[in-house]
Amino acid sequence: MYVSPVYFFFFILTITFLASWEYFAIALASEDFGLKALGTGLSALAPLGMYFLGPAVFLLFVPMIVFVIFLYLLFYHKDIHYTSGLVGKTVLGILYIGIFLSYIIGIRQFEYGGWLVIFLFSIIWANDTFAYFIGKGLGNIKLAPQISPNKTVEGAIGGLIGGLAAALVFNFFLFKRLDLINAVLLALVLGILCQLGDLFESMLKRSAGVKDSGSIIPGHGGVLDRIDSAIIPLPFFYYYFVWLNY
Question: What is the spatial distance between Cα 163 and Cα 186, in angstroms, rounded to a whole number?
Answer without folding.
Answer: 10
